[in-house]
Protein 1
Amino acid sequence: MANLTKMMLYFQKNAQKFGESTALLSGTQSYSYSRLINHAENVAGILLGNQSDLNQSPVAYMVEPGFSYVSSQWGIWLAGGIAVPVALAHPLESIKYILQDTGAKTFICSANFTSLLSDFCREAGVRLIVWEEMPQSNPISLPEVQLDRGAMILYTSGTTSLPKGVLSTHLCIESQIKSLVEAWKYSANDHTLCVLPLHHIHGIINVISATLYVGGKVEFLAQFSAEEIFARFNQGALNVFMAVPTIYFKLIAYLESLDEIKRQELKTCMQAFRLMISGSAALPVSVMEKWETLSGQRLLERYGMTEIGMAISNPYEGERKAGHVGMPLPSVQVRLVDEANKPIQNEAGEIQIKGPTVFKEYWGKAVATKEAFTEDGWFKTGDVAELVDGYYRILGRNSTDIIKSGGYKLSALEIEEVLRTHSSVEDCSVVGLPDEEWGEIVAAVVVLKSNTSSDELNTFMRSKMPAYRVPRKYLFLSELPRNAMGKVTKNDLKVLFT
């Protein structure tokens, strides 16, 4: 086992403090904080070999959620490396892109991924370490890792260009954690269930890192199953749950398939939870209201992104407004600006963020990094919002959700909310299509739960909003295309109209 240096990172200090308390539960196994940090030290020793410090070298890892994931991540950090989590569902070409873009020369993987990775890693000169086959490392002194050093690279979704690697420092990560711990009142009594992919900030920071920071427990589910999630709920140990709107949508569908006695039993169980949160995509008001009816829980909606962590949140104590993402989190500065980049009030504008939670740079992309910030250091999110009675309300993303038609700026999200109130609409997504006369026209892609026509939808929408906001084209699909975090990939929808 490695010997810890006098200077310890935040997770090292806390793991030692919480000792034999349970940190992780996966399947039938439980793992203490002591066992977790000890194994992380062993991983660090394997990574270091004869080196004294990885000196911020990127190390990729592709392992199952649970003990192997957290110990790999912590081991990379203890060795002075930059952790690069890779999605379990990524095809080889996407993995190649990440390895080539980061320049990672070491890759930790679970044994069941070796057949996918071994040939490429051998040809590319990448050291492949199979997690299950790691030997016991020799005792070694761990490097001192300052908080301003690089800690993690997460990749953007790449919907409009090639994915960019978002580099966060240890200071950035700890600042994100501390902000959430203060705002959402994490404690050692928290026991949360992780059902989110772990190449995204939602699962990594909000679920795992913040919970472990205070000595709580994180339980893992190998793959999504509504039945299994409710079985875990019914055991009575869980008290915190975080998910994306798509998951809540599926959980609602499952609950509605049960008889009244079973639904009431689960509602009684869920009412005892301390907190339930939704994020990573806009939460439809209809989903929020239906979940509250079925669970007794008013979901807390928040706003964040890979580059900034969580920035805005409805209050833990206080009114959680449907259709709004709330107020700035501790240590986060928020402002709205116009197209000339000037701060504005009482009108919609782009959200800009400043503070210690903001990422350092796009990996290897100095020009993109410079373009992402204002001259005085504000990060340009590209998301448009308005401030109403102290609560921010997201109107959409400049590039995909703000439709410029006939001189109007229309929020696709607002039009979607109205369309979802039609009794035949299961789900929908609104996009802007290029048009010579109008600049863009409004189009809607709709998933139906009962038969209706575009003419009927058009009549309904015209009764609910001005004509210039009503979709001019409709397309019906069996389901909407989404990325790993449940966001609709709107660019995929636009091409369906051509």
Protein 2
Amino acid sequence: MSVLSVLMAAIAPGVALLSYFYLKDRYDPEPISQVLKLFLFGVLLVFPIMVLQRALVQGLGEHPFVFAFVTSAATEEFFKWFLVYFVIYKHTSFDEPYDGIVYSVAASLGFATLENVFYAFFNASGFSALMMRAFLPVSGHAMFGVIMGYHLGKAKFNPDASRKHLSYALLLPIFWHGVFDYTMLVTKTYWIWFMVPLMTFLWIRSLWKVSHANARSPLRVIQREEQVKI
């Protein structure tokens, strides 16, 4: 494969998934500039996270459970949560629950896309390996972003339970990311028997969260009132 072909194959899954979740916004699609900003910030997160993870490996070792839940899941999801919360959570463009999903998925897929590019160029892998990564790590990051964004949306538009959902927005992605990584680490030869049910569950649950977040949009009521007036 040529360099351009490898690069396109590595980038395409993240862009396709981001487009999919962006187009799922039924009532008020987010400014493309804001979505791209979160995506690019997600790309930049790769570098500080790589440095921190290297330090954690040296300090904590590479025990599968510790690596999966602390070195990998906790560091990556915390930085993504921190990014979305401090960059966009209080922004005026975050005006309905589904927006949390769009922005969290953008940050997650920015991170996953550069990670995928590094994998493509620094590991001996062919097109089939890149497609497998599209269905697993890249797709997994999108699912973790949906979980994070769903609870950020609930936190912003349900002030009475904001602390609870802000915690869920961080802890639940860490948990599922850890489960994902731990499964891949300990089931090297028969991983497919565990990953297919896990990914199926995460996709079904994520699509439910997408539908539920859209259904709770305040813009839905406004749109209906306008249609009645017409």
Protein 3
Amino acid sequence: MIVVSDTSPLCYLILIGQQTLLQQLYGRVFIPPAVFDELSHPHSPESVQGWAAALPAWVEVLAPQHIADELAALDSGEAAAIALARDLQATVLLIDERTAVRFARSQGFLVTGILGVLVDAANSGLVSLADAFAALEQTNFHRSPTLFADLLKKHGSE
């Protein structure tokens, strides 16, 4: 399985202390240099910067060969992640931002974000979905007021 990640899913997993779920679910994750730069940026949370400074062996930074002009409307990390996913013929693209998700899906990618990762991890018995959502509520993650409750109802509380 080839998995490419944008910044947001990684950042939120780090913030809630669940970044190893990616290794447990996917084994290895590729990120483009633009994503690494966003994670390392001085405005990123300290824990995220620290994680990027000591990048785990299961994360590989790899530059895309070419970023197509059609990706110019997206954030640089999103565009680079989609371009890298194209290059690697990725199985899964981890991305959260709506515009980038719509574009990636229109290109035929299987896309999931932080919530999909957490649901998959809960379904695999790796994490309590209720606990993960409670931790995510302590961050600046944007969502509708009922999203977590709806997902817990659909996927179970544990």
Protein 4
Amino acid sequence: MKENYSSKQVSQATGLSIHTMRYYERIGLIDGIERDKNGYRLFSESDIGWYKFLNYFRAMGMPIQEMQKFAAMRNPVVSTLTARRELMETYRKKVYEQMKELERTLVNIDHKIGYFKILEEVEKRNTYE
């Protein structure tokens, strides 16, 4: 028998808020969520796995639009593996460029910290003279 999970259980399993889970459903990042006779959502193991995957994208800083592109490629009939890999490669390039920019920023910050340390030493010498 297939086990179903409540919104609260999925939220706890994925770390996503129920509000975020509903938002992802509303914007098409996840679909096919079953409902019980009272209209409550019933999630599967597969749904939990997909939410975890979306959470991973979110943690990487992937914009919602990119996540939607990736989600739109989920097609059980037609293989979209190449397109999904290419999307991930494109996103990897963006992340790599962001990392390079952050490294340049860190170097600038370190230089500024060094400059302030020198100024502090000069100030100390002038204070004690």
